[in-house]
Amino acid sequence: MFGTAVIVFREVLEAALIIGIVAAATRDVPNNHRWISAGVILGLLGSMIVAGFTDKISELASGMGQELFNALILITAVFMLAWHNIWMASHGKELAANARNVGKAIKDGVKECSILLTVVGFAVLREGSETVLFLYGIATSDQVKVFSMLLGGAIGVVAGVAVGYTLYKGLLRIPMRWFFSATSILVLLLAAGMASQAAGYLIQADLIPSLASPLWDTSEALPEKSVLGMLLHSLVGYDARPAGMQLVFYVVTLVIISIGMKLTNNQPKKNKLQVAA
Amino acid sequence: MKFLTFILFCFLSAQSFAAETVYTILLQNHRFNPANTTVPAGKKVKLLVINKDASIDEFHSDDLGVEKIISGNSKAIINIGPLKAGRYSFMGEFNAKTAQGVIIAK
């Protein structure tokens, strides 16, 4: 039961942390909770579908379908998080001050919400499909301990959600002065971590070279399976044994999104309410 | 000139890619057979993992940085390398107690 709980906990934790950060980062987006809930539900449905089609997906692309599918989902999420951060860099303060929605702002608001839905949905889909397959395998196996293993799975889910929720609540308590900076940085690191993971799958699919693997090995000092390792993996993309190319993707993503955020922030602004900081 | 060198590099890489040996590992009764597989260091390697069990499992290796779900009665190709010389452990994550193996790069 413990083993099952740990496996499920790891999967759920990763999705829960992403959702926690995204939920906090979009606290002033109207109805963000509804969009996030919709994302979770769609993600769960999607993960069941993906689990059902695992074989077909795996066979695609000369047997590299799984890797490509995961990489594509991650890369899409990276673009969405990048858009969110860049958009927030110019509009965040307006939202916080309840500025009037004018034309583009409304359109952007809808875009931002669909981004919320997609990022959350994809996170749940990725982690969910693996968990669904795992739990389904247990439920249909002939092992005697089915009930205790399923119970372990349930515990893993609850524990993972609890940690994600704690992170969310914790983030909401950050003073407003630093709130947008803090959540922007977290989203930035999430995006970079996802880019690094995508690179891992592309390397596995033999589409890009690994460039020194592993680049470093900190698995003794900080194993990825430890609680801290798990948290750092989900939050900042920590990898105890990353390939060189993964680091490249990580840094490039950080740099490009940061530049994007700086550029939008420096634009001369028209038709915006002056917001007292 | 740099562009031509790049094209040549791609061509050479593709050639070495075509010459890879495939190492077969069976997963049966939630155990890997062979449990230890020796591969050449410094080269890209393909593993063919055949899941002869009816139940699904996930080939997972933190050392190699790979994870791939393999359905029951199915097989999967896993690309690894180039590896530095050493031992790289892997497991069937859904049956970790018994499904353990090692890739030895020499």
Q: How would you describe the overall organization of this protein?
A:
The complex is a heterodimer of chains A (277) and B (106). Chain A has one domain. With 277 residues, chain A is mostly helical. The C terminus of chain A is likely disordered. The relative contact order of chain A is 0.17. In chain A, α3 crosses α4, α4 crosses α5 and α4 runs antiparallel to α7. Chain A is built from nine helices and no strands. Chain B is of the alpha+beta class. Chain B has one domain: Immunoglobulin-like (Sandwich). Chain B has a five-stranded mixed sheet, with no helix packed on it. In chain B, a hairpin with a 4-residue loop joins β5 and β6. The longest helix of chain B is centred in the first third of the chain and has 17 residues. The radius of gyration of chain B is 16 Å and the shape is elongated. The mean pLDDT of chain B is 87. Chains A and B meet through α3, α5 and α7 of A and β6 and β7 of B.
Extended strand count of chain A: 0
- Shape estimate of chain A: globular
CATH topology of chain B: Immunoglobulin-like
Helix segment tally of chain A: 9
Mean pLDDT of chain A: 88
> How helix-rich are the residues of chain B, as a percent range?
10-25%
CATH class label of chain B: Mainly Beta
Averaged pLDDT of chain B:
87
- Assigned CATH superfamily of chain B: Cupredoxins -  blue copper proteins
Structural class of chain A: mainly alpha
Kindly name the structural category of chain B. alpha+beta
Show unreliable segments of chain B.
none
Strand order of the largest sheet of chain B: 3-9-8-5-6
Distance from first to last alpha carbon of chain A? 52 Å
Order of helices and strands of chain A: HHHHHHHHH
Q: Name the quaternary structure.
A: heterodimer
